[in-house]
Each structure stands twice: as C-alpha cells, then as structure tokens.
Amino acid sequence: MRIEVSRRQMPSRLFAYLSPVIALALTILLGAIVFMALGKDPVQALYSYFIEPLTETWSLHELLIKATPLILIAVGLSVCYLSNNWNIGAEGQFLMGAVAGSAIPVLLPEFQNYLVLPLMLILAMAGGAAYAAIPAFLKSRFNTNEILTSLMLVYVAQLFVDWLVRGPWRNPQGFSFPGTITFNDFALLPEMFPASGRANIGILFALVAAVLVWLMIRRTLKGFEVRVLGQNPRAGRFAGFSSAKMTFFAFLLSGALAGLAGIIEVAGAVQHLNEKLSVGYGFAAIIVVFLGRLNPLGAVVAGLVLALTYLGGEAAQISLQISDKSARVFQGMLLFLVLACDTLINYRIRFIAGQPSASAEGN
Amino acid sequence: MARSAANGDALLEVRGLTKVFGTLKANDSLDLSIGKGEIHALLGENGAGKSTLVKMLYGSLQPTAGEILWKGKAVSVTSPSFARSLGIGMVFQHFSLFESLTVADNIVLSLGPGHSIEQVARDAERLSQEYGLPLHASTHIGDLSVGERQRVEIVRCLLQDPELIILDEPTSVLTPQEADNLFVTLNRLRDEGRSILYISHRLEEVKAMCDRATILRHGKVVGECDPRKETAASLASMMVGSEVAEVQRETREDKTGEILLEVRDASLPPATPFSIGLKTINMAVRAGEVVGIAGVAGNGQGELFDLVSGEVASTKNAVFLRGQEVGNLGINDRRKMGAAFVPEERLGHGAVPGMTLTDNLLLARHASDAVALQRFGRIGWVWEEMVDKATKRICEEMDVRKSAENPAASALSGGNLQKFIMGRELDRQPSVLVVNQPTWGVDAGAASRIRQALIDLAASGSAVLMISQDLDEIFEVADRILVMHDGTIAEAGKAGDVTREKIGLLMGGAHTERDPEETSMEADHAH
Fold first, then answer.
1. What pLDDT does B308 receive?
2. Cβ neighbours of residue A229 under 8 Å, at least 6 residues apart?
C-alpha cells in the first residue's frame, strides 16, 4: 500500500477560514485527553484554563497585557511571512528593543520629562530593527538561511540581557537580585483604567499597528510588493521589485514592532528590565500569525486567544497544581493542528492499495 | 477514411473515454482507434484535451468512464509502468533527464532495478546507431543540445521495444533539420510495424507525415481524416471550429526609421553551469520595424530578454533605448522611457498565477502609470477604481474571455491570459515592445489576433522585437530576421528574401564556424 498526497484542484474557501476554529476545537479536545491522562477532571480543568480567566475584570486586564506583545510581534511577522522571509528570531528582537529602550531610564535616571517615553519607544524600535537587520543582511548578501541566523541570534540576545541585568545595569540597591532600577514615572506607560487593573496603553499601539499594516498590505503598492515577492519572486523582478530590499523591509519592520513590544512589556507591566523578560512571546507570536491567517487583523483575535493560554497556564498552576509550562503544550498543539488543518485543506491524502509505481515517471 | 474504428486490426482502441476534473469535462466520451503500423496524429488547440487523453493512455491518469482496448482486449492502465509492460512508450514534451548524469545513467534510472549500466550503455548505443540517432552513452546530459536530449528520450523509449509510441509535440524544440531527421526515424519505426501517436499543432508536419488524424476540440472528437487529403487551412478550421483570420499587413519595405532599441557588444556570463551566456550581441530595431529572432529554445533567448528588459543589469552602454544608454537602469526606468516587455513564461514571470487580473495589471504598470493608477500623491496608495477600469478596457480591447469578473491569472486559459498580458502592454502604446514567444501554447484564434496586434503596433511607428521559436510566426510577422545560436546572434536577412534552409543552418550554428574576424567585422558593420 502506498500513501499519495496530491494538491486539491479547488481548496474550500470556507474551510480555509474555518481552519483556525477547527484547530482550536481539536486543541481543546486533545487538551482534555491530556488532563485526563494527568488524572484531572477534564471539564473542570478546561474551565479553569479557558473560561475562568475571562470572568474577572483584573484578569481581563492581564489578558490585554499579554496580548499586546503577541499582537505587535505577529503583525510584523505577518509581513515577513507574506513576503517569504522567515524571521524566527522575534524573541531576540523583542529583547534587544527592550534593552535599547531601557537605556534612557537606566543610564540617565535624572533625565525626567515628557520626552522620555517617546524617546524610549523610538529607541526600542530602532534597537529591534537593528538586531533584525543582521539576519536580513546575511540573507541578502550571502544567501544565508534566515531561519537559522535569526533563531540563533535569540540565544545571543537572551544571554546579553542576562549579563546586563546581573552586571553593568544591576540595581545597586537591589540586594544582589538581577535587574535594573525601577523606572521613574516618566518612563512608564500610563495605565488605561487604573481603578480596575493594570492594563496600559500598549494595547492601543498594537491595535493601531494592526490596522495600519493591514491597510498597507491591502491598499498600497508596498503591500502589493510584499505579496508579489512572497508568491513569485520572478514575477516580482519583472515588476521591478527587489527581493533583497524586501528582505530588509520585512525584517526591519518586524524587528521594530518586536522591539516596540519589548519596551511596552518593560515600561508597562514589569517596570524594570530583568532576566525573566524572555517568556517566549516572540515564538508564540509565530502561532498567532498562522492562527490569524497571515492577516494583521486576524492577528488581533489570535493574539487574544494565545494570551488566554498564558493566563490559563498560570491559573492551572494555582488551581490544578500542574506546571504553567502546560501553556506551551497548548500552544504547540495549536500550531501543529492549525498547520495540519491547512495542509489537509490544500492537499488530499489517499491510501492506495497495490504496487508502488516506478520512480522515474515523466509526469 | 482508411480504416474504421470497428476494424479488427486496431492496436489500440478507445471507447467513450471520459475524464472529469471537478465540473470540467476534459475528455468527453472520446472514440479513437490506432491501427498497427500507422502514424496517427492527435490534433487540437491547447486545452482541447490532448494531454488528458494521452495521460490516460499512458496510465498517469485514470478515466472517469469509458474503456481502453489493447489488441482487442479491455485493459485498465493503472500506471505508466503497466503501460510500458503492455508495450506503450511515451516521449514527453518536457524531458525528464538529470543534467549532471550521463546518458546511460539516465536510461538505467528509468528502467528500474536489475540492469547493469554497461549492458544498457551497449544496447542504447546499438539502438541509436540503428535508428540514426547518434548518441554516446557516456556523455553528460548537460552537454547535449535539446535535440540530442530528445534522442535520449526516444532511445530510452525504444529500449522497452514498444508497439505504440506516443510523442508529445516532439518538433517544438527542434531546428527544421533536426525535425527532418526525426521524421526519417519515425518513418523507419512505422515500417517496422510500430504505431505512433503523434501530438502536434504544426499542421504542415502532420500533413507530410501522418496516415490519419483525429481532431479534438473542447474535449470532444470533432473529426477524423486523412491529413494528406486536407489543406492546412481546412485542418486549422476543424481545430478551431471556424476560419482563422489571416494576418493583414502592408507590403514589406525597407525600414529606415530612427533606431529605437539597440544592443551593443553585450555579453553576459552564464548564470548556472548548465545555462548559456551571451557573447558579444549586436542588434538594432528601428521605428516601424518588427525584428524576429529565431532559434532553438535554450540558445540564450531568455537571457537576451532579461538583458533588454533590465531584469539582469549590464554595463551602461550595452543597451540603448531611443538613443540613451540604459544598460544600468532597472526595468521600470526602461518602461518609463516607453518600453514594454512580454516574457515567455506567462504564469510565474509575466503574471502571478494566484493573483487577480487587476493585481496582474498593476504588476507591470505600477511605475510607468504611477499617475493614473495611484492616488493621494506619492504615498503609494493604489487607486482601485482606475486599475479596475484599465483592466476592463484591456479585456474588452483584446477580447479576453474569463469566467468571473476578476479571476486569478491561473484561471484563464493560456490564450486568454496571453491576450491579457499583450493587451496590458499594448494599452500603453509603447514605443518599443520586446516580446518572447508571443503565441507559445496559444490557440490559433488568439495567436492570429496577437500577431496582428504586433504588426499594427509597428505600423504605428513603434519598434517591435519578437523572439520566437515558431518559424512560421517569424515569417508571418517579422520584417527582418535574426537567429540566435549558443548565445550569439547572426543576421539572416529580410523576411521576404531569406530561405528557411538558411535560417535552419544558422539555428544549427553554421555561422560559428566562420572566420572569427569576419564575424566581428560584421558586428562593427551593424552599427
């Protein structure tokens, strides 16, 4: 017997849109099985994982805080992936953005006025973009695989942050704990509804970025260039577009947005730079991109879903006494299943009884 | 009709064969019979269903309904290897050979396990001698010409001792002389009692060589005839379903207009070890003139197109548009100077298959028509109404037939997409048009429309450079003919004076054996 995978003549449009929903449903189903295997009541476990965080105001605030970096990064990555540039290193760009933006409150603690926050945001975007420029340069100049280089640079960034907060940037009054001084008030993002929770205006940046990038992709020539070069570089060259320039554009844009996400995280929820900043938003955002159908507006919805898995993981740690790493399990299953759904929507798998045919056929 | 389908001596018979893809009936209840020892032509336009039929005969597709009889017995051809075991061999239009391996390696690979390379090499060389297809088993495929590669495919097919050989558009890649050699081989195979199913849209060939012809249109058999008793025009009208308009042109005269496009001493190194570079190319196209470049595929035509279009950068003074040096300018800068380009590959070069027609309009014209197609100043905002309007205008002007208002490029038939791509450029009224294979795989009706458009454009005072492998097309459209061989260009002469034989010799590389000094003097002379 042999297994044949062939492209479907007419992939269903309906299922292409439903794919993330189906993947989510399957993830929840598989999650229930995992909980059962762990000896927990699946219904109760799923409730505390996915429903409970949505029932209280303060945790809705937390949801926005977690969704903000996911959406920001995913919006940038969607441009990368649409243009066929596989930036896997957003986590590193997120960290380097956070470092660059933190430089002002950490190194110039006396510099306190309304310019501080805008400058921090700009520096963070520049830092993230500069760090993303490395794999872009290596790809366009030496044809290096950007998946490997951008991924490896994540580890460099993680170790760099670790060294900074334990060494030169450590808070002298911090009882030897790693971490910088707490930022002054001018260096912190304002909270939106301080009475009910700590959600800050970072989510507005994420929403604005999503809408702007969506408009760019749908309505402008630049977005057209992104789509053409992503689908067909040869035709892109016929249109006079340059793949090398596009690589830089996509990496710089996604690096800048990841850097912005980094400083929003630091200047918002955490209020200082520490060694625990890297919790994998840059990787989870890859799932957000695919769950959001490579559409920046889709990334907003998908970012909220992924943020829920983080919250659920924390909730499950308390109420079910299982590791909050279970959130990673859910995220992994979700990515696997959404890609599996997409594959089955575009391809048909057939099991054919009989002899395999000779290998070298003309067609 | 020489033999009828009911005749007992049919080698292969097809009854009511139907293949449905989704809602499309690619083959609709076809009947066909191929007698022993006959060359049977399968004629039809692109999309008529020839490939589908042949793939079912060779086992790479399974029919939806109907039956195939082999020597009178119903068989179900489940795979190409089963087809070969029956005695059906096939030579594909697009070769499936590994360039970095030798002839013998390639043949052994296709035979499956249990054959020694030495034995296969001996058999292949013996067969190639017998049938006048000289080959050395130890040559690498990468070093062979296209015609020689086809020999490898034919010898590979003959090694299985087939009774029926299917040839898919075999002469589309050959020079006239190479094609003549192929015909000798085919006649010999017929004399041995083998049958040949010959797929082609070259009517002259079919008339000269085939005993019987079956004509397909829209997936149905619309006629069976003895092609020797038909004229090319009557065969064409059966294929198309109506008379094909003849191209109208004024008498050819010497064109003395201003030189609008010129290439001077342009050389390009080969991009890959198996591709061709350009060697000191010199040529010029005047206003009002159509210059045709003939040549066998893969002799540098694509590279020349890239050089002229600016997709590959060259030195500043290698290419001139309207007297200005443009060799270092990109394709959009050249478009802004009035040039337009139509590449050979429609899907994947001239158009993005998955994108709509409006997007594909933007593909070629976003820079040259920036003012008309963008709004809100210079922020790159696409003015969709204007793009829609231009798309509609082009579709109407060129009679592009489509199933939806704004379908994806891949949803159009080859002819309709080519009409759209030509229309996209003609709509700008370019002063220089460079087109590679304008009617490749395009149905006869669309082809004549496109050729007429090229002639009309030149008549209006533009310069047209047309690269084509179709000699008939070149003679029909061009004022002056150049020939490409192995990355060089030779002047053949005015279309009215030059003979096919001369062009054939140049296509085979006759001019390269001349004194190099003479060639370079000619090049100087061309300025």
1. 95
2. A83, A84, A236, A241, A243, A246
Q: Which helix (H) or strand (E) covers residue B214, if one does?
A: strand B212-217
Q: Which secondary-structure segment (H or E) carries A221?
A: helix A221-231
What is the C-alpha radius of gyration for chain A, rounded to an integer number of angstroms? 22
Give the C-alpha separation, B39 to B195, whole Å: 6
Tokens of B333: 């800068």
pLDDT(A38) > 90: no
Q: Which domains does chain B have, with CATH numbers?
A: 10-240 (3.40.50.300), 245-338+431-527 (3.40.50.300), 347-429 (no CATH)
Answer left, alpha or beta for residue B251, where phi above 0 means left and psi between -120 and 50 means alpha. beta
Selection from A38, A75, A104 nearest residue A320 by Cα: A38
Residues 324-363 of B with CB under 8 A from A: 330-332, 335, 341, 343, 345, 348-355, 359, 362-363
Q: Which two tokens stand for residue B287?
A: 């206003």
| ipTM computed for the complex | 0.85
| Domain that includes residue A83, residue range | 10-350
Q: Which residues of B18-40 are buried (b: 16+ CB within 10 A; e: fewer)?
A: bbeeeeebbbbebebbbbbbbbb
Residue A288 domain-assigned?
A: yes
Question: CB count, 10 Å around CB of A171?
Answer: 18
pLDDT at residue A18, rounded to an integer = 87
User: What CATH number is attached to the domain comprising A108?
Assistant: 1.10.3470
**What residues of chain A lie within 8 A of the CB of B367, using their CB?**
240
Amino acid letter at B457? L
CB contacts of B55 in chain A (<8 Å) are: 363
- Residue pair A331/A309 in contact (Cβ under 8 Å)? The answer is yes
Is-above-0.90 flag for pTM? no
Subunit contact B352:A232, Cβ cutoff 8 A: yes
What pLDDT shows up at residue A359? 39
For residues B105 and B425, what is the distance between their CA atoms, to the nearest angstrom?
46
Res B512: pLDDT: 45
